[in-house]
Fold this protein.
Amino acid sequence: MANIEFFLPFSIMITLFASALWRLGYLIDSRTRLAPKKNANFKTPLLGIGSLLAGGAGKTPYAAFVSEQLKLQGLSSAILCKNTGDENLWYAKKGFEVYTGNRFELCQKLDGEYDILISDDGLEDRRLSHAFWVCLTWGERAESLRDIIPHGNCRSLWRDHPEIACVKKCAMEWEESAKYADIIFSMELNLPKNSEIIAIAGIARSQRFFAGLERNYRIVKKIDCPDHFNIQKKAERALGLGLPVVITEKNAARLPQQLLENKNLFISTISLKTP
């Protein structure tokens, strides 16, 4: 028992120390590489969709939603995102104008070519000082080292971002907090309810995906992978078990068309509404 009592506080100390290192690296980065640029003037306004969470806040579907709303108003837009992960593939398959890479350099390159640019993430990049930042939140605290990764789920703290102009409270449609949310996300799946399924997720906050499926289906096997993980091999093996295999829309963006055409592979899509 004494060994256990020692180990638990020690493990917490280690994660807090790692969080402190992350915090130090963040502060140095924000004051050097990502520090504001002098005389950076842009004609094209930039709308930033950010979050303090380290993934899983719904930035990508919300940025797509905003782009669609702008199109309905007759305004042209392009979405800027990182060149790693699967967001750019998802946008491209959906038919959005998407550019990847250094967001500040993309703002320079595309200045004047669109009515508005939309940045999917990049809240930490202080070079984007001309952005109007919308922050999506799921009730995270983000007040101390205990809230910073790897101890917590946040990349930075609320006090780091005086540039945030608008905060949007988010919730899944079945959550109690949906009554008070600004953005309500829902999951859609074309599969008979109460079916036995295998669920695969390679996204941040995969517990939301599994929880949504469990409301209507019997998950026989959960396969939880790291964020942005290429699930192709795991999906192929799972399909060999004979049950319907359910994956996320983001993960599907990386899969070859032949696999997507498998009759036993189902894609859970995300939609949202703003009350």
About this structure: The radius of gyration is 20 Å. The chain has a mean pLDDT of 94. The chain has two domains: 46-172, 187-273.
